[in-house]
What does this fold into?
Amino acid sequence: MKKNVYSLVLADDVIKAVDNEAYRLNTSRSNLINQILAQRLSCITPEMRMREIFNSFSQLLDDCFKIQSQNSDSLVTVKTALQYKYNPTVNYKIELIRAPDDYIGLLKVHIRTQNSSLIAMFDNFFTFWSSFENKLLSDFPHPEYSASLIDGKFVRYLFNSSDATDAVLGNSICSYVRLLDKALKLYFLSPSDFNSNLPVLTSDYFELLSNMVI
It folds into this structure.
């Protein structure tokens, strides 16, 4: 949604109330006024779209995930624990792009541990996962697959589909996170036996591709 600068004459009491609410919501005065007017006039803002995507995302999460509270329309973080020594926490952070093009946002995955062995396993898994995804996506009409592993954090761009509803996009992102988490936990459960799970994971991945966008 394109934005321009406009001058408005507002009462001091209104501005005070707006500023208090903007502070509470961790947003700017201009953005809050824009959202209020958009809601009153039935306009769809990027913030509304992002909230709808995250609402759909949250409704499909399994009980093993916990949503972290964050005052941001463009960001949500969920965490889960690995069944491994010390039960390390894995964070899945989804950051949506305000004006998406080929990509709707990014997924960042991070493991909270200082254990060098766990970090090495995490890196090994996501090195495999990047190659696994790149190969499976090679025959599909998606934008270029973009993922990286930097300082113990896996970062992947999420594909956009302009004809998909916000609910479908939210469901799609959630389904992808659930599949990725399933694969990660299978790997940590038994790295030496992980290859035996690849046929099922491959089938699950192709099902995602046939039904939705990731």
Notes: Residues 166-189 form the longest helix (24 residues). The chain has a mean pLDDT of 86. The CA atoms of residues 167 and 179 lie 18 Å apart.
